[in-house]
Write a structure and sequence with these properties.
single chain, 380 residues, alpha/beta, Aspartate Aminotransferase, domain 2, Aspartate Aminotransferase, domain 1, seven-stranded mixed beta sheet, three-stranded antiparallel beta sheet, 13 helices, 13 strands, 13% strand
């Protein structure tokens, strides 16, 4: 079987509504951080069920600012099975990474291993919600309370996911991504959510050069030209243009996530379990399938992927190599001999198949058929 048309890994769900929103901002002349940021932040805070949301230029910036604004300088426990941005935020934020193993079924951090790694130097836990699946936040929150630890959630891949009925990003400091592959997209962009008003104010100032008020807010003052930094900050703000896209995307989120869940159910029905371990929606959690990932059983992954890609199917891998084996972390920080058996097993077998709201039933069927055939063909 050969796919007759290209089916990419992801296509953002964009239409005339986003075009019109961007055009309105361009015509307004206010391109930097402005009124649409406030609207986006308001919608996102309501969605996350917290009082504060701060729009930023990336999830990486949100993670970094969460570290800095919290004053964390000790150990942070996080999974190695993640994009390197999670660990980079810990290191650049001035703290120390402690890598925990993951649960095989969900690919999220293993709470039992987290608790075993806690020392007097531990200050925070950074769960990474993988591919649209929430980590076991009920257990992690209990561990954090017991040991008086901060929770910083890498919610980049889980916009709309829940655990015990509570949204990801509301269990601690939530850090979100709006990269084109995510559940909502602005191109680049991120958000930080928190129920700590003072922390949100610190983050806003840190993201804006250490100045407590934004340019838009100062325009309403008697002397808008007065800008006084109270500390040395950064420039990590989101533009008014991208925020306008975010506002439109927020209004589509439920529909887009429903489509992802529908496509995932079709994949589940069509993919052969003799060839793949399929994604699991853990009890008490809502999976929003930012990615649809399978674990190959007995097939060579490189030839399997090459086969699909030759047919125009944008299959890929998230994530290999795991962070602790990457040169900086393995060689310079000394994690090269760390043993994380589940992480290594998952990272060597995981495959990401195309997933986006605009896929048709035929698209999902073609990918599943091609994946089954390739897995059979390339069995070791």
């Amino acid at each position: 079987m050969s796919v007759q048309r290209t089916i990419p890994l992801c296509i953002p769900d964009m239409d005339d509504a986003e075009v019109q929103a961007v055009a309105a901002v361009l015509k307004s002349g206010w391109l930097a951080h402005g009124p649409m940021n406030h609207e986006f932040e308001k919608l996102f805070a309501q969605f996350a069920g917290v009082p504060c949301a701060v729009s930023l230029n990336s999830c990486a910036s949100a993670l970094f600012l969460a570290m800095r604004a919290s004053g964390i300088t000790g150990e942070v426990i996080l999974p190695s099975f993640t994009f390197v941005a999670s660990a980079n935020a810990v290191v650049t934020g001035g703290a120390t990474c402690v890598f925990a193993d993951i649960d095989y079924d969900t690919c999220c951090i293993d709470p039992a291993h987290v608790e075993a790694l806690i020392t007097p130097r531990t200050e925070a836990i950074m769960p990474v919600h993988y591919g649209g699946q929430a980590a076991d936040m009920a257990r992690l929150a209990a561990i954090a309370r017991k040991h008086k630890l901060r929770i910083i959630e890498d919610s980049a891949e889980a916009i709309g996911a829940t655990c015990a009925g509570k949204p990801t990003g509301s269990w601690g400091i939530g850090c979100w991504s709006f990269y084109p592959t995510k559940n909502i997209a602005t191109g680049e962009g991120g958000m930080l959510t928190t129920d700590d008003v003072a922390l949100a104010d610190r983050v806003r100032a840190m993201a804006g050069h250490g100045i407590a008020s934004s340019t838009w807010a100062r325009e309403k003052k008697e002397k808008p030209w007065l800008r006084a930094a109270t500390f040395a900050g950064y420039n990590m703000r989101m533009s008014n243009v991208l925020a306008a896209i975010g506002v439109v995307q927020m209004k589509k989120l439920e529909r887009m996530n429903d489509a992802r869940r529908k496509h995932a159910a079709r994949y589940d029905a069509l993919l052969k379990k003799e060839f793949f371990d399929l994604p699991v929606e853990a009890p008490g959690r809502k999976h929003v399938y930012q990615m649809y990932t399978v674990k190959l059983k007995g097939a060579d992954r490189s030839t399997f992927l090459a086969d699909l890609r030759a047919q125009g199917i944008g299959a890929t891998v998230h994530f290999d190599p795991p962070v602790h084996t990457q040169p900086f972390y393995a060689e310079q920080l000394g994690f090269g001999t760390l043993e994380l058996p589940v992480t290594m097993k998952v990272s060597s077998t995981i495959v990401t198949l195309p997933m986006y709201p605009g896929m048709s039933e035929d698209d999902v069927g073609l990918v599943a058929e091609a994946a089954n055939a390739a897995a059979r063909k390339h069995r070791a």
